[in-house]
Known about the structure:
Blueprint: E1 18-23, H1 32-40, H2 45-77, H3 85-90, H4 96-116, E2 120-121, H5 124-132, E3 141-143, H6 151-160, H7 173-178, E4 182-196, H8 199-222, H9 228-232, E5 245-250, E6 268-282, E7 298-306, E8 317-319, H10 323-342, H11 346-364
Antiparallel strand pairs: 1-5, 2-4, 3-8, 4-6, 6-7
Helix pairs in contact: 2-4, 10-11
Amino acid sequence: LKFPASRKFPAPPKVEADVIRVGREHAISLPTSQLEEAFAERLNPEDRRTFLDLCSHIRVVGRRALDENAIGLKESYNYFNPLNMGRRLALGRYSDEEIMELENEFLELFIQMLGFGCFRILSDKEALIAAESAYLLDLPVDIKEANLDAGLLKRYIDKRGDSLRTHPTLQPLGDFMETDRFLIFRRGYGLDSSTGRFIVERLNVFTDRLVDSVTSKVKAVLGISSSDDAAGSEGAPDLVSLQNAISFQRIRLENMSTRSLLSLWKTVTIQEPTYKRVVVLYRLSELSPDMEFSKAIHIKLFRDVPLADVEVVLPEKQWRFNTLDSLKLAATSTAAFVTLLLNEQTDFVEGAYPFIAAAFVLAASK
């Protein structure tokens, strides 16, 4: 089709996409009945009924084993459930050694059940992706480690560390050994996409690039070498080998061109792979204001968590200012301070205090 020369259509913004490779899941995300029917259709009518009866027996046996483990896990967790007041009082009759044994038994059953569900512990590479990239979460996150108890997992590792070296749910074991305050398990992969202008998020990316550019020029003038640029130019690390991998295309605001502020008004689509299920286990310490009782163990389940925004599931997290918010606060504070210095009238200075306080509040809010 040829349009008139006077009629011009804006070209879509150029987007640089990167690709991340993840491992194939051990579970098949299809109903069991659908798989059985698909296999049965390949058999002749005489063997079809025999095959379906065999599948039914296998399903009953497997379900019975899972139900027994689930009942044992539920009974074991009742001692540490923050909402179970009766078992909480009953736990007071046990000695410290018996309570530790109950804790280890619960953790063993918990990790075993997650293994049956094809969950895997979050690895260092996956945590690195969340720390170095962003999808819809553009605020830095810190963990209040003092509010998390480190004794629960440490005792379990010290007692059963040798038997965990071949545990498939906890591979790689090095990540598990270094995690002494919480556990994060994930299962399944999906894909999430969002369309919009994302003005605030893109403005923050533009500010970060501007600050990084000024910082690099200052370092060049001062003769200070830095390896941040070389590390930042690399793509996302592959989580598995290339032979057994699934590729997902990532479209992030960090890779989009922001040569001018006018480009911030263009509608774009961003895309990021997600974990279909994420499970977090932790215990609060006595320093945490939210602690119900000292032996409580918290378990949380999340759905469709982007790989780049895994920080949202972290326990006892606190948000920090990003670059744009810091500049807003600095600019507002500087303007208020200069106004006070330039005005020598006492009445005006006393009347300016409420406006200065309001300016601080507006600058700190987002």
